[in-house]
Amino acid sequence: VNPTKKEEEKEEGYIPTIRFGLNAVKNVGENIAQVIINERKENGPYKDVFDFLERVTDKDMNKKSLESLIKSGALDSFEERGKLWANFDTLMNFNKEASKLKESKQANLFADVPDMAGPSRVQLSEASNVDSQQMLTWEKELLGLYISEHPFNDYKRSLQGVAKPLEELTGQETDKVNVAGVVSSVKKITTKNGKPMLFVKIEEVLSSAELLIFPDIYEETKEMWEDGQVVLCQGRVSDKDQEMKILVEKT
Fold first, then answer.
1. Which residue has the higher pLDDT, 154 or 194?
2. 236: how many CB neighbours lie within 10 A of its CB?
3. Whose CA is closest to 97, among 118, 75, 123?
4. Whole-number Å distance between alpha carbons of 24 and 142
């Protein structure tokens, strides 16, 4: 949300930053994204979260859009995500009050009434920081990818020597290999025998692989194949038709 790249570059100690378009954030539509940008261009960077919510009072600044802005990290320049989320109702009510006051000012533009002050700002309640796994879950849900870091980083060191890095499997066929990663997609199909099996994509930080979970293994491990779940399994690498897959035999 704040500030623009050119504005940052004018300041000393500028640090290159990952940028993600507001319009691509889930539940933040094109209209409210443009309203936020236009307001910032016309009246300068937002000073804090209250300044932001007092100036952006479009009807599309609703519960879903504000929730997504907080959880995705778009408002991190104002306050830590956990604190903003813990004070969500307070912030939403402040925005609604600001919107009502703005409408009243417009209705009384030509009336002989004194200028009305903005809505009352309150002290945000203290709250614990969001833990890294929760933050990453929000990012994947709302952005479609991990921004802050990759959740596999927390497990990578402890799995050294236990699981073979996925990037080292390309072009190899092995009898047995241990692999690990974060589940990023699950596709369920039904075999000719009427039994369910899965095609599961797992990711490390920079590499990915597809697992084939056959019916017998699936029946034993149904609960573990969910997006965001970290899995460790053993199987055979198949590079048939130049499409690498891991045929899971054990989890």
1. 194
2. 15
3. 118
4. 9
pTM of the model: 0.75
Average pLDDT on 197-213 reads 91
Are 195 and 213 spatial neighbours (Cβ–Cβ below 8 Å)? no
Q: Are 197 and 189 in contact (CB under 8 A)?
A: yes
Beta partners for residue 202, in sequence order: 183, 209
Which two three-digit tokens encode residue 3? 């500030």
Pairing of strands 208-213, 196-203: antiparallel
Three-state secondary structure readout of 189-250: EECCCCCEEEEEEEECCCCEEEEEECHHHHHHHHHHCCCCCEEEEEEEEECHHHCCEEEEEE
**Tens of pLDDT, residues 122-148:** 889 999 999 988 999 999 999 988 888
- Is residue 181 within a helix (H) or strand (E), and if so which, with residue range? strand 177-190
Structure token pair of residue 112:
């002989």
CA atoms within 13 A on the CB side of 9: 4
Instruction: In whole angstroms, give the CA distance from residue 52 to residue 33.
Output: 13
